[in-house]
Amino acid sequence: MPKYFEDKEESKRPCSGVREDLKTCLLESDCVRIDKKTPKECLQSGTNVNDNCRALQVAFFECKRSLLDNRTRFRGRKGY
């Protein structure tokens, strides 16, 4: 499922792998291609977005939240 590691240079930003996969998933979704909505509008409305994109959205949220959590000093960041 993750397409980030295929033919791409590694970014130094945290959560960049999940961000790239979420962006790719949203751009390939029916909501963007057929309904001609922006990815932000698709995530807010929730229509025509498949379960993989929703799972990536949750993973991206968890990764971003782990950046603010002080316990990550011991556990490490979530995501890839």
TrEMBL record:
Pfam families: Pet191_N. InterPro entries: Cyt_c_oxidase_assmbl_Pet191. The keyword Transit peptide does not apply. GO terms for cellular component: mitochondrion. Keywords: Disulfide bond. GO terms for biological process: mitochondrial respiratory chain complex IV assembly. It comes from the Eukaryota. PANTHER family: CYTOCHROME C OXIDASE ASSEMBLY FACTOR 5. Belongs to the PET191 family. Involved in an early step of the mitochondrial complex IV assembly process. This is Cytochrome c oxidase assembly factor 5.
